Amino acid sequence: MKYKIKEKGSPIMSIKLPEKFEKIVTNSKQEWLDTRGMTRDELRTLIEGRVIRDQEVSPKVGEDAPDFDVEILDAQGKRTDKMMKLSSQFGVPIGLVFGSYT
């Protein structure tokens, strides 16, 4: 099912947000919103868009993971410039760590 996300100045179209996201919208302090230059409605729109995209394109439980290339790190976690395709490890247990360690 496709949804149209509202854009600035267009009519509001809301979906029911999962409870954890609704809490983010309702519990966000005005100061936090001000530092990000958005209103509560704009935050809701941003989160609604993410929820809708996740429903439409995210892999579902039991589906194959999307294939992508990753850089192989050495034993100390340093970059090696060597790439590996996720699908090359089919059937082999692997661990993927996503994030930034600076």
Give a structural overview.
- This protein is an alpha+beta fold.
- Helices cover 32% and strands 12% of the residues.
- It has three helices and two strands.
- Strands 1-2 form a two-stranded antiparallel ribbon.
- Strand 1 and strand 2 form a beta hairpin.
- Helix 1 packs antiparallel against helix 3.
- The longest helix has 18 residues.
- The termini are far apart.
- The N terminus is likely disordered.
User: What global shape is seen?
Assistant: flat
How would you classify the helix and strand content by structural class? alpha+beta
Distance between the termini: 40 Å
Order of helices and strands: HHHEE
- Please tally the helical runs, counting DSSP H or I stretches of 4 or more residues: 3
Radius of gyration, rounded?
A: 19 Å
- Poorly predicted parts: 1-6
Helix content bin? 25-40%
Strand order of the largest sheet: 1-2
| Rounded mean pLDDT score | 84
State which percent range the strand residues make up. Answer: 5-15%
Largest sheet: 2 strands, antiparallel
Per DSSP E runs of 2 or more residues, the count of β-strands stands at 2
Topology of helices and strands:
Blueprint lengths: L18 H9 L2 H6 L4 H18 L11 E5 L5 E7 L17
Antiparallel strand pairs: 1-2
Helix pairs in contact: 1-3
Structure at a glance:
By secondary structure, this protein is of the alpha+beta class. It has helices at 19-27, 30-35, 40-57; strands at 69-73, 79-85.
